[in-house]
Amino acid sequence: MKIKPFAGVRPPKEFVEQVASRPYDVLNSVEAKDEAGEKSLLHIIKPEIDFDPIAGEHEQRTYDKAVENFKLWQSRGWLKQDTKEMYYIYAQTMDGRTQYGLVAAANVDDYMTGKIKKHELTRKEKEDDRMIHVRIQDANLEPVFFAYPDVAEMNEIVENIVNNNTPEYDFVAPDGFGHKFWVIDDDAINARITEIFETIPAMYVADGHHRTAAAARVGAEKREQNPNHTGNEEYNYFLAVIFPESQLHVIDYNRVVRDLNGLTTDEFLAKLSESFDIEKIGNEIYKPNALHNFGMYLGGDWYSLTAKIGTYNDNDPIGVLDVTILSNLVFDKILNLGDLRTSDRIDFVGGIRGLGELQKRVDSGEMVVAFALFPVTMRQIINIADTGNIMPPKTTWFEPKLRSGLVIHKLS
User: Fold this and answer.
1) 348 has which bridge partners?
2) DSSP character for 390?
């Protein structure tokens, strides 16, 4: 893999907690407006919040405001560019567990040639939207989230830096997640990190498929527009935080459905029993305890569903996934939901909200049935990416999310 250090644009430590924000895609415009303080990066990545009433995300004045605010934040000293190229370390702590990522500039060619591997489909309209933001700012304002196979020497380098140096940033965000950030200001260490990654055969997009695709497309676009292109320009790279596979934890991504496709509760349970062993749990929330075991909330009761042997294929990277089993045996066979990407009869609930959220959605009358899934593993994600397969929609949920605004990568 080809990565490089870069001269990051980032807030002075006294401003970092005020500048850093949640990513653009985890909160809507109203939430962003309510959450954004004076110095928040949200004014740059969701600039529609600066208008009253809130402007449309895709209006020209919104894009113009994004550029204006990025320049303003730099002129006011809320964002400053480092004077030399460096790697950085970004640590996140959630529920007592910490993961340590290398902040680096990843290579556009590695994405275009498939060495940076993906496991989800992207939608062109979402890619196009992210491309506009990268293009108008001439910068990657928010990082993408990659994984790589563990390398002992790389783990040792990170451990030595973390244990022997005071972090540049160290704060707990309002959501309770801890964030620490180290600057690697040692040319020899930075050079060795570059060499280590040259031996790594692949990296994997964990979160941020649309941002990755958009960043790579802008790099390719700039290449075509430059008659003197050499391949060494900064636009050949984009901002990534790269974590060792062993440190990442995927949490569950659950489903709620509006109706039973005309079936009564008893009829639905009878059809389920053809493919699942069903145990009625009662009103106590049931969390799946193993692969191929599901929690279901229906009619005020929780159930344990275990897929019967022969209804799935553990030798198929896609067939082994619980989202595939649920889709095939319930959503297609019984509920006839059609394309899950477009159906208005289903919704997806990230596990960060807890299983109580599923029960709440059903008890409110908005939904009729909820399904809790056992989370996929990083190994399953890598197997799917390595075999060129694509995950079903809404399969993986990574938490904590990368904080935006800790460091920005300029393309020129």
Assistant:
1) 255
2) -
Contact criterion met (CB below 8 Å) for 86 and 190: yes
For 99, half-sphere exposure in the C-beta direction (CA atoms, 13 angstrom radius) is 25
Residue 271 scores a pLDDT above 90: yes
The structure tokens listed for 381 are 């994600």
Reported as a single tens digit per residue, the pLDDT across 373-400 is 999 888 889 989 999 888 887 788 888 8
- Provide the Cα torsion 231, 232, 238, 243; round to 10°: 110
Two tokens, residue 193: 């990190």
* CA dihedral over 263, 269, 273, 277, signed as positive or negative: positive
Mean pLDDT score, 148-176: 97
The single residue listed with the structure tokens 């889709």 is 327
**Nearest-CA neighbor of 200 among 412, 3, 398, 404?**
3
CB atoms within 10 A of CB 409: 24
Compute CA 238 distance to the chain's CA centroid, rounded to the nearest angstrom: 16
Distance CA 3, CA 104 (A): 6
Asked if residue 298 lies in contact with residue 369, where contact means CB atoms within 8 angstroms, the answer is: yes
State pLDDT tens for residues 30-42: 999 999 999 999 9
What pTM was computed for the model?
0.87
Q: Which two tokens stand for residue 179?
A: 């964030």
Phi-psi region of 388 (alpha: psi -120 to 50; beta: other; left: phi over 0): left
In the chain, the N- to C-terminal Cα span, in Å, equals 22
Q: Are 312 and 324 in contact (CB under 8 A)?
A: yes
Q: Which amino acid is at 105?
A: A
Distances from the Cα of 162 to the Cαs of 85, 86, 170, 196, in angstroms?
19, 16, 12, 19
CB 118 within 8 A of CB 153: no
